[in-house]
Write a structure and sequence with these properties.
Elements lengths: L1 H5 L3 E4 L3 H15 L1 H9 L5 E6 L5 E6 L2 E6 L6 E3 L1 H10 L6 E4 L4 H6 L2 E3 L3 E4 L8 E5 L5 E7 L3 H6 L4 E8 L4 H4 L2
Parallel strand pairs: 6-9
Antiparallel strand pairs: 1-2, 2-3, 3-4, 4-5, 6-8, 7-11, 9-10, 10-11
Helix pairs in contact: 2-3
């Protein structure tokens, strides 16, 4: 399905060695060495890189024909989707690149597109605005992936207002069946 949608504005192909290295470098830059090792361990033959037809720049990465990551055009930031988020969740030590939400609010997070500051109880102290982060519950189960709107310090001290814009959510049982 993704291939059909992307064929209009993108062309997709199997990656060359330097493109796989680019993915490894971007992952290392944004998420650290633990994430790099996880990316190196996946089957690179299952990856597909999609480029913009107009500019020729990398726009998205598929893994087993499923959207794995996107590349934001304005700043070349790696935007993880659920398959990459599951991989990052398994490889990154707690609480790196995570915010922990109260268990009672998890169903609301799965229904909405925003996590509010008052629902965050813990997380990575190094989170800055516009970081791509993992959203987990109190037992460190992956709920979704999103973009931090404010810093971690502001998330913890604020009693109101949005903290994370949810990009994508994990469906029931998806943590176990993917990757």
């Amino acid at each position: 399905m993704w291939q059909a949608m992307s064929s209009v504005s993108q062309y997709c192909k199997k990656p060359e060695k330097n493109e796989v290295n680019l993915l490894i470098y971007l992952t290392t830059y944004f998420y650290g060495d633990a994430a790099r090792k996880a990316i190196e361990d996946i089957d690179h033959n299952e990856l597909t890189f999609c480029h913009s037809r107009r500019t020729g720049r990398l726009r998205s990465i598929l893994y087993r024909d499923e959207l794995f990551a996107s590349i934001r055009a304005s700043d070349f930031r790696l935007i993880p989707h659920i398959p990459l988020a599951i991989l990052l969740h398994k490889s990154l030590p707690f609480p790196k690149h995570r915010v922990v939400v109260v268990n009672e609010i998890v169903p609301d997070v799965l229904e909405s597109h925003t996590v509010f500051s008052k629902h965050i109880i813990y997380g990575d102290e190094n989170i800055k605005p516009f970081d791509e982060i993992l959203i987990v519950d109190e037992e460190d189960n992956l709920i979704g992936v999103g973009r931090a709107i404010i810093s971690y310090e502001a998330m913890i001290t604020s009693l109101r207002g949005p903290a994370v814009q949810v990009r994508e959510k994990v469906g029931k049982g998806e943590n176990e069946k993917r990757i």
